[in-house]
Amino acid sequence: MNKALLIKLAILAVITALLCIVLAQIGGLAHERQARQQEAATGIEQSLAGAQTLLGPLLLRHCKEVWTTPRGDIESRNFMLTAAPAELQVSGGISPETRTRGLFKINTYSSKLSVAARWTELSTLAPRAERPGGRVECGDVIAMSSVSDARGLRSAELKRGDQPLSVKPGTAHAAFRNGLHAPLPGLKLDEGLALNLTLDLVGSQRLALIPAAGSTSLALQSSWQHPSFGGRFLPAERQVGVSGFTARWQVSELASNAAADVAAGKSAHEVDTLAVELIDPVNPYVMSDRAIKYGLIFIALTFVTVGLTELLTGRRVHPVQYLLVGLALSLFFLLLLSLSEHLPFLVAYLIAAGAAAAVLTQYAAAMLGGWLRGLAFGGGIALLYGALYVLLSREQTALVIGAVLLFAVLAAVMTLTRKLDWYGMGSAVPKGE
């Protein structure tokens, strides 16, 4: 292998390293824009309301036990009794609302929920002394319902049968402070109880319910076409289409310890939930970041193509031309990132890929000595961009598609160079079959 070729390979290695730096800078810009999008989401949540997790209605009763120790000292303890409903039925709709802050779009929603809770017996609210000679005094039973962000409560109406109850802010629950409560004076503990709660609630991106009941049923419908169902339980039934989604969850206390966890004072992050999130199927920053990760492979495949053309045709390509081709490929990702902030991702991708392929086609025509070769080179670049979009849009099969593509390229290179005299490279062109 002659010295000039070794020098050229070394220069190409330096050029590739420089292009890696360019790609890293573009990737850093994508991360920065993604962080600013998150800041915009946080700002909207601070101004409107955050993700909402609904709990209740639950029944609470605050009690105090006083007793005298053998030494004659008087001691006391405060405790809380809770009663989760035997049946909890929640239904309603989610109306998505897209909010913008600068260039960034954030998914928020308004939701009208109807909640029906029924208790068959209230024995858990009857106080019992734990100390010998202890005297227990308790306040009235209250009904409470909690949300993650009380600013999202636009209106609430709580009824006992047909009787409206006086709703007050706060919950009187130590672990779930945000929400509302209503006193239930004169409640008889040997009878059942039925409450109906109507909520007008707003939030951001996610709506969840804690299934703190013997049996919980949740039915939601929305015009949002791209829901992500999360929490500890997936819907028992769901339909997702162009008109939106409907979903129904059914959870019993045999499958969830949510009621016991709430009674034990665990926080919302520690208990089971049923949840749906309004996600964007194509996040331009995530997609751009994933595309940039394939940038080095793009550059390597293009350099291999140009190098093979040099070897098989005898046409010399200057390292500066390699650099310009690599820069054109790298700036495609910057163009994609900037356009996707203003246009749908597919449209931005087509524009950026079309512009890069057009520039490289006309440049390759001069670099490789003919429009036929330039068109072939540009067609190959267009195929690479097509393959990249397939990789981006098929996340589940991206690995196998990428592996097959790279194997096919390697097989093509090995086939084209199988007769090449590597030791005499630069002094001879490979012979045909």
TrEMBL record:
It holds the Pfam family CreD. The keyword Transmembrane helix applies. Keywords: Membrane, Transmembrane, Transmembrane helix. The chain crosses the membrane at residues 294-313, 320-339, 345-365, 372-392, 398-417. It comes from the Bacteria. NCBIfam families: PRK11715.1-1 (NF008712). This is Inner membrane protein. It comes from Pelomonas aquatica.
